[in-house]
Write a structure and sequence with these properties.
By secondary structure, the protein is of the alpha/beta class. The chain has two domains: about 1-250, Aldolase class I (TIM Barrel), CATH 3.20.20.70; about 265-330, Orthogonal Bundle (Non-ribosomal Peptide Synthetase Peptidyl Carrier Protein, Chain A), CATH 1.10.1200. It contains 15 helices and eleven strands. The strands form two sheets. Strands 3, 4, 5, 6, 7, 8, 9, 10 and 11 form a nine-stranded parallel sheet that branches. Helix 6 (about 120-130) packs parallel to helix 7 (about 150-165).
């Protein structure tokens, strides 16, 4: 898979996940096979204003290239300033979020709201592309529309066409509408429509990455084949399950899908994840930040409900160590 100047041999990437895809999660994704990762979505105003001291929590480390930054906002000029800072901080790709379905985001003209306003969306895309170095790829995260109306469908393709014309090289497309949020099933037939549309326009050079409901290797392989997408963006499916990258890689290589990790391997990865979070944030903040990950890690444990409850109650590094001893046989 190709994203502008970035070549990716394994076409399955770590999606941008608000509140999750920080440096520790991205590093684990790489360890299990992801060649390209995105940081958690950042508000343009925040990126412009954040101090160097706080930036270390959000910006990329020097050893995680290639890495992309996803931006969200509503004003072209602010998007430009934020994108330029992120490039100066070492990010290799800028991704624009026109997909977030959260109500307060929509109410401020950000994220998925832009699916309903192609003119504003394209002003942002053109402004960012014009002010980025040519070497830095620009991509966009979209949903299949603001809602299921014919008008929304028309606006999707208006944004797609306009963004291609202004130099956007790829799109991640989630097969739900903004109004659907995460309800119902992701429509992967729409991904096939998008690929066929670009092929008919002789724009096979534009990369289309599919997203939505990717929780097992078998589903990932099937969606990739059926949709004709160039790649996949794993999102909720890899929170607390970085092993999914390894499993999808085996499947795509025609190899047997590895067995789920045993408790010893789960323990080692959870402990390493907590250590990296503690190194970044400090133990107190890490204990709180990691609770959401613990809930997801617990889904792989035979006693998932009980383990989940212990992770929910964890408040200190000692609590985490005790959970690993109690449930995973950790030291």
């Amino acid at each position: 898979m190709k994203l502008g100047s970035i070549n990716i041999r394994f076409p399955v990437i770590q999606a941008a996940l608000s509140g999750y895809s920080d440096a520790p999660m991205r590093k684990l994704a790489r360890r299990f096979g992801a060649e390209f990762v995105l940081c958690e979505v950042m508000l343009d105003q925040f990126v412009v204003a954040v101090s160097k001291r706080k930036a270390r929590f959000y910006f990329a480390d020097t050893d995680e290239h290639p890495v992309g930054a996803q931006l969200m906002g509503s004003e072209p000029a602010q998007f430009v300033r934020a994108a330029q800072r992120l490039v100066n901080e070492g990010f290799d790709l800028i991704d624009l979020n026109f997909a977030c379905p959260v109500k307060k985001v929509l109410g401020r003209g950000r994220g998925g709201y832009l699916m309903s306003d192609p003119q504003s969306a394209l002003h942002i895309a053109a402004a960012v592309r014009e002010n980025l170095p040519e070497r830095v790829p620009l991509t966009i995260k979209l949903r299949k529309g603001f809602d299921d109306s014919p008008e929304s469908r028309e606006k999707f393709f208006m944004i797609l066409d306009g963004a291609v014309e202004c130099g956007v090289c790829g799109f991640t497309v989630h097969g739900r509408t903004v109004r659907q949020r995460y309800e119902g099933q992701s429509d992967w037939t729409f991904l096939r429509e998008v690929k066929d549309y670009l092929t008919a326009k002789k724009r096979q050079d534009i990369t289309v990455i599919g997203s939505g409901d990717l929780f097992t290797a078998e589903v990932c392989g099937r969606r990739l084949r059926e949709s004709g997408a160039d790649g996949l963006a794993l999102a909720r499916g890899v929170i607390g399950n970085p092993w999914l990258f390894r499993e999808v890689a085996a499947l795509l290589n025609g190899e047997p899908v590895p067995n789920p990790p045993d408790l010893a391997e789960q323990s080692a990865v959870i402990a390493e994840h907590f250590r990296m979070a503690a190194d970044l944030y400090g133990e107190c903040r890490a204990a709180a930040t990691m609770r959401a990950f613990g809930v997801r890690y617990s889904l792989l444990h035979p006693a998932a409900d009980a383990v989940r409850q212990d992770f929910v109650r964890a408040k200190t590094a000692g609590d985490w160590q005790n959970i690993l001893k109690k449930w995973y046989g950790g030291n």
